[in-house]
Write a structure and sequence with these properties.
33% helix; two-stranded antiparallel sheet; TIM Barrel; alpha/beta
Length: 314
């Protein structure tokens, strides 16, 4: 589950064209349309189906998979370990900053302290069956939908970066990413060598445009989560936007494909990790990498107004 040598950046190690073309993540060429594994938890009782879905993603050219130990309390990482082979050349990206919270009102809890970050990396290494995780994102919880840290979970980013850099120096992780982070914190963290940023962002929720510009200027991959919105109450849904519906009808595509295609066109450093537990939706998401937006359609989509996204759960 680590990238291997590949003579052509336009195809995977298996020779499959990369959906959406090729992008860079921590110095490795990856498909711009990847896969977010969070929803595989829904297939807890259908392990064979979940493994088959991951294999299908690889067959279709996906070689960038996003996961976390707190997805199903290690379940999703175990599925990836079972399904993905070293020869697939898949770049597996995990995240730390939260721990599973089985039985809680919310299935995860903040785990922001340096010792918790280190323990989470160790848990991810074990469940993924890896000696080194290619990229690990530090989920800061400063912004975007989701829980917020309180009390001793409010930790200075310098203390967190120190342990992340130490883990990188020890060879346990490759690149360091940030998630749910503010522009100020990203700027502060740049000297640590940030390779990607994961924030909530979509066609209808573009509050982080300045951060996207900074990432582009610094050669940092932009990996939007909730790229179609709608995962939390009050989070705007891309698929309900009239301009998106009109574009989908005109281009014989689905609204979801239009929303994903716009993200790819909007910035060349964008990597998608749309997730699903359905094989049909997986194929539709991957096919979004082939949707061509003409200039008139692109102008109509660009003109869509951004709406607030900062929804927190406590």
């Amino acid at each position: 589950m680590t990238p291997s040598s590949n003579p052509s950046p336009e195809v995977t190690t298996a020779g499959v064209p990369r959906p959406g073309g090729s992008g860079l993540l921590a110095g490795a060429a990856v498909s711009r349309v990847g896969y977010g594994a969070m929803q595989l938890e829904r297939l807890r009782e259908e392990r064979h189906t979940a493994v088959a879905l991951l294999r299908r993603a690889v067959e279709l050219g996906v070689d960038h998979i996003d996961t976390a130990e707190f997805y199903g309390n290690g379940l999703v990482n175990g599925l990836i370990r079972e399904a993905i082979r070293p020869e697939d050349g898949v770049v597996v990206v995990s995240k730390v900053g939260a721990d599973p919270n089985p039985g809680g009102r919310i299935p995860l809890r903040p785990a922001q302290r340096p010792e918790e970050l280190r323990a989470s990396v160790e848990d991810n290494l074990k469940s993924l069956g890896l000696d080194r995780i290619p990229v690990v994102n530090l989920r800061r919880m400063d912004t975007g939908p989701g829980i917020r840290p309180e009390a001793d979970q409010v930790v200075d980013i310098d203390d967190q970066l120190a342990v992340m850099v130490a883990l990188r120096d020890e060879g346990k992780i490759g690149g360091i990413g940030l998630s749910s982070v503010t522009l100020e914190k990203l700027r502060h963290a740049l000297p640590a060598g940030i390779v990607c940023v994961q924030n909530a962002y979509s066609l209808v929720a573009r509050g982080d445009e300045d951060m996207l510009d900074l990432c582009l200027a610094e050669g940092i991959a932009w990996v939007p989560y909730f790229p179609l919105g709608g995962a939390f109450p009050g989070l705007p849904k891309v698929t309900e936007e009239p301009a998106v519906l009109a574009a989908a009808q005109a281009l014989d595509s689905t609204p979801s494909q239009i929303g994903l295609a716009w993200l790819l066109r909007h910035a060349p450093n964008t990597l998608l990790i749309a997730g699903t537990a359905d094989a049909g939706h997986l194929e539709q998401n991957i096919a979004a990498g082939s949707v061509e937006l003409d200039e008139a359609t692109l102008a109509e989509l660009d003109a869509v107004l951004s709406r607030p996204t900062d929804v927190s759960i406590r």
